[in-house]
Write a structure and sequence with these properties.
The complex is a heterodimer. By secondary structure, chain A is mainly α. Chain A folds into 2 domains: about 55 residues; about 200 residues, no CATH class. Chain A is built from 9 helices and no strands. Chain B is of the alpha/beta class. Chain B is about 30% helix and about 30% strand. Chain B is built from 7 helices and 12 strands. In chain B, strand 1 and strand 2 form a beta hairpin. Chain B starts with a strand and ends in a 5-residue tail after the last strand. Classes of the chains: A mainly alpha, B alpha/beta. Chains A and B meet through helix 6 of A and helix 2, helix 3 and helix 5 of B. The complex binds adenosine-5'-diphosphate and magnesium ion (MG). The site of magnesium ion has 4 residues of chain B, from helix 1.
Chain lengths: ~250, ~230
């Protein structure tokens, strides 16, 4: 695709801007910032990927994955800012998902052990886990907040923190994975996944593209659920004291 | 307490107990100021005081839903924090002001406490539910569809089913009509007199306090004092 063609796509942005101005939606600023950021970020990533794909060194690859995980953890951990050591817990959950997925994909020889495969797949895995972890933190705090009276009843009957938080944990994990499971159910009907679209545009046969996409979807969903569960079980003890008391300090801080 | 010349140690002993809550990063409110009291086994004590005086907070210190910030609390002569907190809470049951049902049927609610330890109630659920003045068939009903009065009775039954012999009762009749309140009142008196339950009963109703006990603890401005419930007042 030529650079001129790329510039022509800016016409779409301009149309959106004009619509926004005309209807006084006040979106111009955000739209402008978004457009510039997308262009700059993706261009930078394009060059980095170009560089990384050329690398044969594992340390650089691992460093790149670590940076992605750090950024994702930082982003997801914002949803649990009232919780102690939440960053490290989110990092562990997301990193565990990545390690798990790579172990399966590389171990079973499903994908080639080259940066060209590992980096984009890791991006998707880490991104999905990030979304699941962010939602989890949000929901877990909401669940505990809204069921605090029931939790206190359970505690006063001699339940452990774990027993008292059980319903909240289950609901929060479920809620955090709903978007993933919904997209499993509607994939192909509502949206064509980006990777598959890319492969088809790039000339791969649709059947081949589908096989890849299924593989990706299953592993993405599975490991995102995994990271949500890991995070749920490592984050809830923060909301209780060692003596099985519900702390109230973390509440209302989201 | 003096029984045939033999001294029985108090069930609870509070020595200069202080409790505050942090209400923002920079400020706290002191709810209890150096409260010193003791509770004898088998007694029925009423606690009165204006709303916000710290009555619920005082109860929550006794089953360690909250911890004191100063002073000492002894339960059966042992510092309360040295008890296994789960065992303490089984022995010292708390019935909240607003009855909150756990998900499921009434029976699920009664079986919940013992179930946490893989047990069933010592007294059958049917007997306990009748004891609190409800019919046996209510056991199968979904607990979320009960009336306020029924929920309050189920909450009490749930604590009894858990095997608690010490009851912390937080304004448990305040949401009930007069008739139901009287029947719960009589039930508590009966549990205390006939079955030896120890009861600490928070009530906002001075007449109720008068009916059930000659004395009350009165909480005011974080301080507690023993007052006589004479009828003239
Ligand atoms: N978890 C809490 N955090 C902050 N303040 C609290 C908390 N619980 C109670 N309080 C405050 O402590 C005071 C005493 O509350 P409480 O013990 O419930 O009083 P009472 O039961 O006598 O009405 C009130 O001012 C209440 O707002
Ligand atoms: Mg109260």
């Amino acid at each position: 695709m030529s650079t001129t063609a790329l510039f022509f796509t800016l016409i779409f942005v301009a149309v959106a801007m004009i619509l926004s101005l005309w209807q006084r939606l006040g979106l111009e600023r955000e739209l402008l910032i978004g457009t510039i950021r997308a262009a700059v970020q993706l261009t930078a990533v394009g060059y980095i990927l170009h560089l990384v794909f050329g690398l044969k060194d594992w340390p650089y690859l691992i460093l790149m994955i670590l940076v992605m995980t750090l950024v994702a953890s930082h982003n997801a951990a914002k949803r649990g800012s009232g919780l102690d050591k939440i960053f490290i817990k989110v990092f562990t959950a997301i990193f565990a998902a990545e390690v798990m997925a790579m172990t399966i994909l590389l171990g079973l020889n499903i994908i080639e052990a080259t940066p060209r495969f590992i980096i984009p797949l890791s991006g998707m895995i880490i991104g999905n886990s990030m979304v699941a972890c962010g939602l989890l933190l949000n929901r877990l705090q909401n669940e505990i907040q809204s069921h605090r009276d029931q939790i206190k009843v359970a505690l006063s009957l001699g339940a452990t923190s774990r027993q008292a938080a059980e319903t909240a944990l289950r609901n929060a994990v479920k809620a955090s994975t709903i978007p993933l499971i919904d997209s499993l159910k509607t994939v192909g009907l509502v949206q064509l996944p980006g990777m598959m679209t890319g492969l088809i545009i790039g000339g791969a046969s649709p059947v081949e593209a589908v096989r890849y996409q299924l593989l990706i979807l299953f592993s993405l969903t599975a490991v995102a659920i995994l990271s949500s569960i890991i995070l749920a079980f490592s984050a809830y003890p923060n909301m209780f004291s060692k003596s099985h008391q519900l702390k109230t300090t973390f509440l209302n801080q989201t | 307490m003096q029984i045939k010349g033999k001294w029985t140690p108090p069930l609870f002993q509070l020595k200069q107990v202080t409790k505050y809550y942090r209400i923002s990063l920079s400020s706290t409110i002191t709810v209890l100021k150096e409260v010193s009291i003791h509770v004898d086994k088998g007694s029925l004590i009423t606690i009165i005081g204006p709303s916000g005086a710290g009555k619920s907070t005082l109860l929550s210190l006794l089953n360690r839903l909250e911890d004191a910030d100063g002073g000492e609390i002894y339960f059966q002569e042992k510092e309360i924090k040295l008890w296994d907190v789960l065992e303490l809470r089984r022995q010292v049951g708390l019935v909240f002001q607003i009855p909150v049902m756990l998900p499921g049927t009434v029976k699920d609610n009664l079986l919940y406490g013992p179930g946490l330890r893989g047990q069933t109630p010592a007294t059958s659920a049917a007997d306990i539910i009748k004891m609190v003045g409800l019919e046996e068939k209510i056991l199968e009903r979904n607990s979320s569809n009960l009336s306020g009065g029924q929920k309050q009775r189920v909450a009490l039954a749930r604590t009894i089913a858990n095997g608690s012999r010490i009851l912390l009762l937080d304004e448990i009749t305040s949401s009930l009509d007069h008739e139901s309140a009287m029947s719960i009142e009589n039930l508590i008196i009966n549990l205390n007199k006939e079955h030896g339950y120890t009861c600490l009963w928070v009530t906002h109703d001075r007449l109720q306090a008068q009916r059930v006990s000659p004395y009350s603890w009165s909480l005011h401005d974080g301080k507690i004092e023993l007052i006589a419930n004479n009828k003239e007042e």
